[in-house]
Amino acid sequence: DWSLQDILEEQVQLIKEMAGTEDHAICALSGGVDSTVAATLVYKAIGDRLHCVFVDNGLLRYKERERVMNMFSSDLHLPVTCVDASEQFLTKLKGVEDPEKKRKIIGSEFIAVFDEFSSKLAIELGRKPTFLVQGTLYPDVIESCPPPGSGKTLSHTIKSHHNVGGLPKDMKLKLLEPLKWLFKDEVRELGKLLQVPQGFLKRHPFPGPGLAVRILGDVTQGEALDTLRLADEIFISAIKEAGLYDEIWQAFAVYLPVKTVGVQGDRRTHSHAVALRAIVSEDGMTADWYHFNPTFLAEVSAKICNTVRGINRVVYDITSKPPSTVEWE
Ligand code: XMP
Fold first, then answer.
1. For ligand 1, is residue 208 a contact (CB within 6 Å)?
2. Which of 93, 219, 249, 325 is most solvent-facing, going by the fewest CB within 10 Å?
3. What is the domain-level CATH number for residue 180?
4. pLDDT at 157
């Protein structure tokens, strides 16, 4: 009877054997649960021969870079290089409105940054890293190569680009995927055994392209990014204070590129609107909108309009998936 403790020890042992005393590994940390747990496990096996990079693409949430970098160093003691590539990403995204184009640009910029990181590292080390650590989970594996006879076709693998195959193919690195046989709840358990903070393990999923899919249209329009960060932070903090965070699958604010008329103080305003979305779901494939108490929504709406400049209207999304998707783009 295998416990997760056994699996953990077995994986650490296996990686030790594979990596010997010389081999190095690199890992891109997204700030999410899977890559963090994978890296923490590999660190247990090879210590400072693991080299992690966290890329700030300019599309992160309120204080997210500080918060995750602090956890990586203070709680997990992981060797992480933070690359601030926000200018680079935002320059490439200027004027781009099409959601799929935005995703493509973000994907290829990420590869460029990661490539540069690994080339520099190879020079520093005087040798190329041997392994690439990825936080691939069992469901990602099944989705990206449906078992024969499962009745699944390529169209079922649509989500695979989110997590699998997003990294350079010509790097000739061997993959280390220590979570490949686990489901999400098992990864959280494993994270607990590895002393990853509980609050972090319960974090809602966050898309790779970040706030770019939560600002409809051009991400670089005016103050959109900063405005959205503040509105989102108010919403999420209120959810946490009300003790509702763990029963919600995902919650966030969306910046709408429309201006509507309002009256604030004794002035008429012509400002942007934000939409709030919160859903319950088992796996993100189907979802229902979360039925908040109206008083809760009223308070969040008032707080956003009173404190976030440039917002004079808040709407709540009451659509399930299907027909809507979780994200607005
Ligand atoms: P949708 O919007 O497709 O979202 O109903 C389902 C889940 O996937 C997340 N999502 C993404 N994750 N890259 C990601 O890493 C993406 O491009 C992306 N688009 C959506 C979404 O947040 C939800 O959890």
1. yes
2. 325
3. 3.40.50.620
4. 39
- Per-residue confidence band for 84, with pLDDT thresholds at 50, 70 and 90: very high
Tracing tokens 């503040």 back to the chain, one arrives at 230
For the chain, what percent of residues have pLDDT higher than 90? Answer: 88
Task: Choose the residue to mutate in 106, 155, 162, 285 for probing ligand 1, maximizing ligand atoms within 8 Å of C-beta.
Answer: 162
- Does any ligand 1 atom lie closer than 6 A to the CB of residue 327? yes
Counting other chains too, the contacts that 243-247 makes at CB distance below 8 Å and 24 or more residues apart are: 244/290, 244/292, 245/202, 245/204, 246/202, 247/280
Residue 232 has pLDDT above 80, yes or no: yes
Does residue 243 come out as left (phi exceeding 0), alpha (psi in the -120 to 50 range) or beta? left
Domain of 299, CATH number, reads: 3.30.300.10
Q: Considering only CA atoms, which residue is closest to atom 9 of ligand 1? A: 207
Both 70 and 159 in a single domain? yes
Residue 88 belongs to a domain: yes
Q: What is the mean pLDDT of residues 266-293?
A: 96
Q: What is the pLDDT of residue 140?
A: 84
Does residue 162's CB lie within 6 angstroms of at least one atom of ligand 1? yes
ipTM: 0.99
User: 239 is written with which tokens?
Assistant: 């959810």
Q: Decide: 209 in ligand 1 pocket, CB within 6 A.
A: yes
* Cβ(284) – ligand 1 distance below 6 Å: yes
Whether the per-residue pLDDT at 194 is higher than 50: the answer is yes
pTM of the model: 0.91
Specify the pairing of strand 267-281 against strand 287-289.
antiparallel
Range of the domain at 257: 214-316
Q: How far is the CA of 102 from the centre of ligand 1 (A)?
A: 14
